Amino acid sequence: MKAIIQRVSKASVTVGEEQVSAIGRGLCVLLGISVEDTQKDIDYMVRKILNLRLFEDENGRAWSRSVMDRELEVLCVSQFTLQCLLKGNKPDFHSAMPAELAQPFYTSVLEHMRSTYRPELIKDGQFGAYMQVHIQNDGPVTIELESPTGPMDPKQLSKQEKQQQRKEKTRPKVPSESGREKAASRPKVDPSASSGAEGDVSSEREP
């Protein structure tokens, strides 16, 4: 799951000519859900969003208080385009969770956020609608957040590590064969040139 979190003076969402949601000072969160997201991703993102210290304290000290500490509002907007992958210049959204699954999942995010904080201070847009999002960024302050790596990534990492190990095992074979060839040909060469040949073998082993 990915999120773009903006500290705002105010933010609102309109659909057509109708304003469906609005907040004053607080956070505007654009949220992109991936096909691999689970409840663990919800727990992580909600905890982080509500506890990020993006606000000043009562003495004006910056980066000291969270949105919950200050009892400010949060506006969440579903944003599947955050899961974009580029194929050349064309955006591809296959890594985004399909809408029929993403809607209840997104609702779970909102419910978890409301149960953790104060439900009346959590607002959202209109899932699946063509929205106009009006954001007055305060600072500007924008934080990019991503939940812990999905289950496929460790497998891919393990595969890459195995491939690297194979490369490391096969890499010495080439210079060793070259060394044997040079050792075999050494008697045919003037002994005074042997140090130069050894130098050549040594240089071949350099990465």
UniProtKB/TrEMBL annotation:
**What's its EC?**
3.1.1.96
Instruction: Kindly list the places in or outside the cell where this protein is found, as annotated in its UniProt entry.
Output: Cytoplasm
Q: Which CDD domains match?
A: Dtyr_deacylase
Q: Which InterPro entries match?
A: Daa-tRNA_deacyls_DTD, DTD-like_sf
Q: Where is this region: Disordered?
A: 141-207
- What's its catalytic activity? glycyl-tRNA(Ala) + H2O = tRNA(Ala) + glycine + H(+); a D-aminoacyl-tRNA + H2O = a tRNA + a D-alpha-amino acid + H(+)
Q: Where is the composition biased (Basic and acidic residues)?
A: 156-167, 178-189
Recorded superkingdom: Eukaryota
Q: Which GO terms describe its cellular component?
A: cytoplasm
One GO MF term = tRNA binding
Q: Keyword annotations for this protein?
A: Cytoplasm, Hydrolase, RNA-binding, tRNA-binding
Q: Which family, according to the similarity comment?
A: Belongs to the DTD family.
The identity of this protein, by name, is D-aminoacyl-tRNA deacylase
Recorded source organism is: Megalops atlanticus (Tarpon)
Q: Lineage, please?
A: Eukaryota, Metazoa, Chordata, Craniata, Vertebrata
